[in-house]
């Protein structure tokens, strides 16, 4: 049995190593290349879990094609946080800048947990 997984995470998802679990077996995914994973069972459980995000689990059959892509709102959110940090630094000064970081960083992680930045979807089943 083989499953094809395409990691289409673009610029925002290109920095880190992405791993998935296929029937409790960990696989590394290459960026923007079809990753063909061979397993012995006819039905596979694919689990995507990144640091600080919820698990996304999909059950697929032999020959399925999946895609992992960055959600559309994620890139504007990251740039908004960067702009907020620049504005906070210029308005509040350096000493209060670190205090604003103590607020913005936890908000970022909570947002990532409840609204995962990556979407695992089945293209062909």
How many strand segments? 8
The secondary-structure class comes to alpha+beta
Major sheet characteristics: 4 strands, mixed
**In sequence order, what are the helices and strands, one letter per element?**
EEEEEEEHHE
First and last CA, distance: 13 Å
Strand order of the largest sheet: 4-1-7-8
Mean pLDDT: 82
- Portion in strands: 35-45%
- List segments where confidence is low: pLDDT < 50 over at least 5 consecutive residues: none
Count of individual helical segments = 2
- Name the shape in a single word: elongated
Instruction: Work out the radius of gyration.
Output: 18 Å
Helix content: 25-40%
Walkthrough of the structure:
The protein has 125 residues and is an alpha+beta fold. The chain has helices at residues 74-92, 94-114; strands spanning 2-8, 18-22, 25-29, 34-38, 43-48, 56-61, 65-70, 118-124. The chain contains two helices and eight strands, in the order βββββββααβ. A four-stranded mixed beta sheet has the order 4-1-7-8, with no helix packed on it. Strands 3-2-5-6 form a four-stranded antiparallel beta sheet, with no helix packed on it.
């Amino acid at each position: 049995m083989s499953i094809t997984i395409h990691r289409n995470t673009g610029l925002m998802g290109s920095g880190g190593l992405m791993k998935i679990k296929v029937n409790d077996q960990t696989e590394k995914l290459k960026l923007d290349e079809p990753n063909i994973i061979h397993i012995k069972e006819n039905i596979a459980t694919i689990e995507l879990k990144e640091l600080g995000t919820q698990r996304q689990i999909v059950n697929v059959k032999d020959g399925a094609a999946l895609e992992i892509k960055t959600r559309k709102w994620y890139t504007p959110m990251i740039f908004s946080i960067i702009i907020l940090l620049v504005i906070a630094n210029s308005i509040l000064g350096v000493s209060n800048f670190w205090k604003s970081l103590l607020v913005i960083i936890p908000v970022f992680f909570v947002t990532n947990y409840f609204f995962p930045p990556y979407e695992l979807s089945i293209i062909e089943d």
